[in-house]
Structures are given as C-alpha cells and as structure tokens.
Known about the structure:
By secondary structure, this protein is α/β, with parallel strands linked by helices. It is 37% helix and 16% strand.
Amino acid sequence: MKVFTHPACLRHHAGAGHPESPARLEAVLARLENLSRVSLREAAPAGREDLRAVHPASYLDALERCAQAGGGRLDPDTVMNEWSWSAAQAAAGSAIAAVQSALHGAPAFAAIRPPGHHALAERAMGFCLLANAVIAVKAAQRAGCERVLIVDWDVHHGNGTQALVENDPAVRFVSLHQWPAYPGTGRAEERGVGNVFNVPMPAGLAPERYVEELWRHILTATEGWSPALVLVSAGFDGMRDDPLGGFTLEPGHYAELTRRLREHLPAAAFAGVLEGGYAPSRVAEAVVAHLTAV
C-alpha cells in the first residue's frame, strides 16, 4: 500500500490551540512508519496546471501572496503561515499521486494537510485551502478515467467537493455527515444533476446506524453504475469523542466500510485522501484500520 505525503504538510500551522495542527499528521506518519505493508512516498507538489483545473489563477495568486507576506487569517477558522501555500501544493500533489497510483493498479492514500473538502473554487474555508480530492479527480479525468465515485465520511459535509462536482454526471458524490453542523450544507434534497447523495445524520446514534445509512446510499449511488475509481475523502472526526464532532464511530467501522467498498466494487481503482479528525492518536489508529482493510 503506497502512502503519499510531503514534509511541507507538517510546516503549515494555523496557530497555537488550532485543532488542525501538525500533530494530526505527525501521529499518522509515526504509526505508518512501523506498518510493514505501507510504503511511504514523497509526492511532487501539484503544478499550476493541475490546480487551475479547479481554482482560478487569481485565487491561487492570492494564496501565494498571503504566504509570502507571512500568512494571515482567511476566515474565522482558516489561517495561513509562511509555509501554508507550499503545504497546500504538496497536499494536492499527494492526492494526485495517490489517484495516479490507484489507476495504475496500486491502491494508495494521501496522508496530508491542510485538508480540502470545504474549499470552494475561489474561497478557503473550514481549515481548507485547495480542493485536494477534486483536483485529483480532475487529473484522473484528464488521464481518461470516465466515472468516479467520491465517498466522503468526514463528520462535516464536504460542501466544497459537492459544489465542484455537482454539475458533472461522470462523478458521483456520497457524503455522510452530522446534521445540523458546520458548514450548514448537505441536505438530502441537494441532488446536483442526480449525482449527489447526501446522508445527513444526527449526533449520538449507535455507530452501526451511521455505517448502514452510508452503505445504503453507496448502493443507491452505484446501482447500474460502475465507477472506474473510488476516492474516499477520509475524515476521521466521526469517531467517538472527537472534539469537533458528535458521531460514535470507532476505527473498526472505517475498516468495515473499506472492506465493503472493495468487495462491492472490486474492479475500481481505490484511493483515499486524509480530511478531518482532531484527536491525533485516534486519527492515526483509524488511518491504520482503513489502510489495512484495503
């Protein structure tokens, strides 16, 4: 199992006490270094051509200028330092590398930060600067991949991902998320062009309820439709006691969902990108569970 990352992802810092801290990725990498079936690889940062497939040049320029000026606050939750632009490029490049590996027959994961599923085309939000998953999907499409299933199990709705793919019938997006919660999107009636399958759920239910509802929607999304690529937006803030979520999942539930996806869609290439999850040791445990089930 190939895991792509980059040292720059550890240098992005949003300030003392911010939940999206380098400790998240440090914990993940420390666990993966001792996992015999994982091969850690350094990915090349994404180039402007890859980024401009999703984000306009004016937005990319603004992010780069902010980092060059030493950083700054982009919204109440999203902060850059001088390394943040390099980290964002590295995160997107790692996501692309993971998808390219998967399309060549080797399942892969991008262990990255900052996350990406809240980023809009021209707006950073929710700790996210660039839409890593969608950037990787666009690269896959340019390589000839015709059908993509994105499964987002982060506890927060991937509003950025949805906004960027909801008019593309070649991409289907399934999102399990807490409702009501940030960012306030992800209602079940939001359907895009029939390619969006939202699973809004209340906090505090038995974990099996979340697993079965997500799985039911995945089956619906793939009925009579076989993706060439499955990309998991793998946020692990749906675990019990995560400081920013109210779901009750455990690492084994992510392993179960991963096994089901692989068994249900055995011909599809398979990749994942790290999104949220704010209890570092728990995130590391869940990443290991996910990867060992691939």
